[in-house]
Amino acid sequence: MAYVISDECISCGTCEGECPVGAISAGDDKYVIDADSCIDCGTCAGVCPSGAISQE
User: Fold this and answer.
1) When comparing pLDDT for 1 and 33, which is higher?
2) How confident is the model at residue 26, as a pLDDT?
3) Distances (CA, A) of 45 to 48, 50
4) Nearest to 44 by CA among 29, 54, 56, 30
5) Which residues, 6 or more positions from 19, have their beta carbon under 8 angstroms from its beta carbon?
6) Which has fewest Cβ within 10 Å: 7, 13, 16, 42?
7) Rounded to an integer, what distance in angstroms lies between the CA atom of residue 50 and that of residue 1?
């Protein structure tokens, strides 16, 4: 199951640089994860300062 970013995202961009497959990008009001590219490694969730990333 892919990871998702909730509305608690503060748009800091920390997760984007940590994603080993580049599945995270800036959206309109928060960062988003491309579910088709996500490899479910959880690295992004581990670095998110606001706890906005979880498994779908």
Assistant:
1) 33
2) 98
3) 5, 9
4) 54
5) 33, 43, 44
6) 7
7) 21
In this prediction, residue 25 carries a pLDDT of 98
Q: Residue holding tokens 């960062």?
A: 31
Banded pLDDT at 10 (limits 50, 70, 90): very high
Q: What is the largest CA-CA distance in the chain?
A: 25
Q: For the CA atoms of the chain, what is the radius of gyration?
A: 10
Q: Answer yes or no: are the C-beta atoms of 2 and 39 closer than 8 Å.
A: no
Task: Tell me the whole-structure pTM to 2 decimals.
Answer: 0.92
DSSP-derived secondary structure letter, 16: H
